[in-house]
Design a protein that fits this description.
Number of domains: 1
CATH architecture: 3-Layer(aba) Sandwich
Distance between the termini: 19 Å
Structural class: alpha/beta
Radius of gyration: 17 Å
CATH superfamily: SGNH hydrolase
CATH class: Alpha Beta
């Protein structure tokens, strides 16, 4: 549930890697470089990314959020805990933690590091502010890990990796009282694919009307993928319907996303968030 807006801006921190800030390859520089002046990059690298998209979305509906990010490409929460602890552990109102894309770089699919280090960070953040709202961002299936031989999810359906990441985040939340929820970004991607809005396999030609949620590396997000991520985060954190942004959302237009697709992605985020209130639906491949 979204917290009520106080008279001062809500202070929110995004912790993650390139799945949070956008990758410089392919189309993603539009995300990485999106309005960096509107957010505080605590590492001083001048990134905008999904945090800046979130900030723009909250501004668009009249909400006040002071947005910061602490990110490092190719790293999990163990890295952030061990090397950026002093930067992260402050009295924030909300903190979003995003782990490594395969859960463990050395042992793909193993949730142990995510569970351990999200818990340690959440506990430390809770000591700084007992009312802190810590959430985990469950990310998407990597096409390169699914469709290419040698991938850790090769031979599985494309939605499987995102569901495994979600289940790991659920386990981490269950193991740590300060973690209040999980943001279903990967399941929003699964929904877009299942509805035929986005392609299933980026190594094949797109069908008419489809978009590719992946960047050209079939690993990171495209502008469409990151926009869907931001809309899902926006809806879950604020409690506002992402469709309030409207098909002619200037944020989407700035990323080069046409109105029809912007509206479709907002609707997908809203639909995924709607099922999150039903425990049985959360456990299923929604």
């Amino acid at each position: 549930m979204a917290r009520q807006q106080p008279s001062s801006a809500t202070k929110i921190l995004f912790v993650g890697n390139s799945f949070t800030y956008g990758d410089p390859a392919g189309a993603a520089p539009l995300v990485q470089d999106f309005r960096p002046h509107t957010v505080s990059d605590l590492n001083g690298t001048g990134l905008g990314g999904v945090p800046a998209l979130f900030k723009a979305m909250t501004d668009a509906v009249g909400l006040r959020y002071d947005v910061s990010l602490e990110t490092e490409g190719g790293k999990g929460l163990d890295f952030h805990h061990d090397t950026r602890h002093a930067t992260i552990v402050k009295p924030w109102d909300i903190v979003l933690l995003q782990g490594y894309s395969t859960l463990d770089e050395d042992d793909p699919g193993n949730p142990a590091k995510l569970i351990r280090f999200s818990g340690l960070l959440a506990q430390a953040l809770h000591r700084q502010n007992p009312a802190v709202d810590v959430r985990l961002t469950a990310t998407w299936s990597r096409a390169d890990q699914t469709w290419l031989a040698g991938g850790a999810w090769h031979g599985e359906q494309i939605d499987r990796m995102a569901l495994d990441v979600r289940h790991a985040c659920d386990a981490a939340a269950a193991a740590s009282h300060p973690i209040t929820g999980v943001i279903p970004v990967g399941q929003a991607w699964n929904r877009a694919i299942a509805l035929g809005v986005a392609c299933t396999n980026p190594y094949r030609a797109l069908a008419p009307g489809e978009v590719n949620l992946w960047a050209p590396d079939a690993y990171h997000g495209s502008v469409h993928g990151y926009y869907l991520e931001a809309a899902t985060i926006f809806g879950q954190v604020t409690g506002r319907d992402p469709r309030l942004l409207g098909a002619f959302d200037p944020i989407a237009r700035e990323l080069g996303i046409e109105a029809r697709m912007a509206g479709a992605l907002q609707a997908i985020a809203a639909a995924q968030l709607a099922v999150e209130d039903t425990p049985e639906q959360v456990r299923r491949a929604a």
